[in-house]
Specification:
It contains 8 helices and 2 strands, in the order αααααααββα. The chain is mostly helical and 168 residues long. The protein has one domain: Four Helix Bundle (Hemerythrin (Met), subunit A), CATH 1.20.120. The protein has a two-stranded antiparallel ribbon with strand order 1-2.
Amino acid sequence: MNSAEVLTEAFTRIRGVVAASLDGLTADDLAARPNGEGNSIAWLIWHLTRIQDDHVAEVAGRPQIWLSRGWQERFGLPLEPADHGYGHTSEQVSAVRASADLLLGYHDAVYQRTLDYLQNLLDVDLDRVVDTSWDPPVTLGVRLISVISDDLQHAGQAAYAAGLLKVS
């Protein structure tokens, strides 16, 4: 396997966890907050997808799907257009409500864009610096692994919360 194939496998596994976490749940289920304060499944899936959309769009030099393909309007959330959930208050987490179909549709669009980007990625590309605001500067490889790590953590949290709903 080359690096692009490894990265594709990672994003494909994330997509599988996202789909399984959403399966069979209503919008009310997805908005439920563990212990009344935890992040809802809807927020977790929306947030991980927004981060992936934001970060992959940036390194690919393309507009975010959220903004360019009407997903922000379809969701109709009371949030700023470029918001991706980082640092959200409890009230903002509660404001993220959506159906499983809407969440999965947005995730699938971002997933496909990610795969399209990875398709032509060469191993040497991973050393390209994409963010100089950190010390050391962030390379493409580090940025993509950061997205995968964040996505896997939130997808796992969503899967756990979905499991709690399905057994109660």
